[in-house]
Amino acid sequence: MTQFTDLGLAKPLLKALADEGYVNPTPIQAQAIPGVMAGRDLLGIAQTGTGKTAAFALPILHRLAEDRRPAPRRSARVLVLSPTRELATQIAESFKAYGRHLGLSVAVIFGGVKYGPQMRALAGGVDVLVATPGRLIDHLQEKSVVLEGVETFVLDEADQMLDMGFIVPIRRIVKFLPKRRQNLFFSATMPAEIEKLTGEILNPNPLKVTVTPPSTTVERINQRVLFVEQQRKRALLAELFDDASFKRVIVFTRTKRGADRVARGLEQVGVEAASIHGDKSQGQRERALAAFKAGDVRALVATDIAARGIDIDAVSHVVQFELPNVPEAYVHRIGRTARAGADGSAVAFCADDERNLLKDIEKVTKQRIPNFDRRNDRHLGAATAALPDTGGKPERSERSAQPHRQGHQKKPNRNHSQGKPGHRPQGGPARTEAGGGERPAFKGPRRGGGQRSGGGRSGGGSRSGVWSNH
């Protein structure tokens, strides 16, 4: 089996890896590190939780250590673009951890916080700059940063950049970069738009590393879908937490308001919960994540903006309170569990008006997500005791909500009050967080633009949004 000591990394990096207890590289690390160290461009297709950050951070740090020279003023030798504040912060922390014995400088910039500390950190130049696209463009416009000194450009989570509407900003940023540079491009999926972008950014004949087929899900995750009426979701979620095995749970909703409502509902039944989404200040988001990591709260309720920015070990379960409008987001949501070689469970609630979304997810992931079956799913615990034993089929109450076929429609029983065939509960999924506000649900996946996470001047916050270790 390959070990990090076999890859030719600089001794200070190997010492840092030993400090972290890392011995064997993951498949993407073993395949990517030698090529990146040799200066090749890289196209990496890998799911979250496969060790992508170390796959590019370690060889980049090795190359910086081999060629010691100061970074240009107001510039960086390495630029890493990340879609969200949380992911940008974690990438910067990884560079700091791996490079602790090298004395290199790292800074991270994102939106929703003041500009002053960021400008001061950039003034003298940094070895590694991790940034969100929106805030980086703001700095470029203010001329507080220039990119002529960038030697290596990393685009992480490219497909999420697409979902959030960042493709145009990325193309703008690339125009500021020198033409002669190394490019590292990472994505969990490869839709047509991302494939086109790779052709624009990467040099010819890049090293290609694919560790899992596009849009597949982690095999160690026990996945189940629970068919449940829309108005019963909150009660069922509360019942899930009656099971002690639900120790550290991430709950996903579509909207910011929905995340706050679900968190309040859990608090009302005695489950410690916190919410995290784009309307929260940076300080609020960091406090919620810290409390979740420390075990002070059992449930972290999040929107898709946080789906790839949460890298926390020992997440026991992921609950999809609402299915995502973008089917690829399902993969990234459940990727929050079963990390670092651990097992995990993912439970998806599916109401009648979400069946088309479930079909889209199964089509993209090329698998059928098993329905809950009490005979085989005892690991879900007492929480599912109220659900009928369907033998893996949708609940009768859900099936009966469908209209009767032509020629077989029964007349309503006048002695009982009942709704029209095909009647659905009032209300429904609201507009996704990326668009803000609420409106009736889309019938299919939404692939349009999104909120600028980490960009713009709005939001405010309690921290500077910059971190460096000169």
UniProtKB/TrEMBL annotation:
Q: Name one GO cellular component term.
A: cytosol
In this chain, composition skew of type Basic residues spans: 405-414
List residues of the Helicase C-terminal domain: 220-380
Gly residues composition-biased segments: 447-463
| Annotated ranges, domain DEAD-box RNA helicase Q | 2-30
Q: Report if keyword Hydrolase is assigned.
A: yes
Molecular function as annotated in GO: ATP binding; hydrolase activity; nucleic acid binding; RNA helicase activity
Enzyme class, one word?
hydrolase
Q: What is this protein called?
A: DEAD-box ATP-dependent RNA helicase RhpA
Species: Phenylobacterium zucineum (strain HLK1)
